[in-house]
Amino acid sequence: MKAQEKLIIIGCGGVGGAASIFSKKLMPEVEVTNIREEKRFIVR
Q1: pLDDT category, 35, cuts 50, 70, 90?
Q2: Quick one: how many helices (H) and strands (E) in the chain?
Q3: Quick check: 6 and 30 in contact, CB under 8 A?
Q4: Which of 13, 37, 32, 14 is nearest to 22 (CA)?
Q5: Which residues are CB-contacts of 40 (< 8 A; sequence separation ≥ 6)?
Q6: DSSP three-state, residue 9
Q7: pLDDT over 70 for what percent of the chain?
Q8: Separation between Cα atoms, residue 31 and residue 20, nearest integer Å
Q9: Domain ranges of the chain
Q10: CB 3.0 to 4.6 Å from 42: which of 13, 15, 17, 34, for a disulfide?
Q11: Could you give the 3-state DSSP secondary structure of residue 6?
């Protein structure tokens, strides 16, 4: 069984969302997880 790399990004309102999308494009083999707890989601 092959070990899988994981990336956890905390927060999505600032640059967290962009970071997760960009990291998935750069490293498609890595499992990306977003953790967010925000009352309002900011879209830029």
Answers
A1: confident
A2: 1, 2
A3: yes
A4: 32
A5: 13
A6: strand
A7: 77
A8: 10
A9: 1-44
A10: 13
A11: strand
DSSP line for 15-29: THHHHHHHHHHH-TT
Is residue 36 a contact partner of residue 9, using CB atoms and an 8 Å limit? no
**Both ends of the chain: CA-CA distance in Å?**
40
- Of 27, 25, 30, which is closest to residue 8 (Cα–Cα)? 30
Closest listed residue to residue 33, CA positions, set 12, 2, 3, 13? 12
Tell me how far CA of residue 34 lies from CA of 4, 24, 27, 40, 41, in angstroms: 17, 12, 15, 16, 13
At residue 1, the pLDDT reads 46
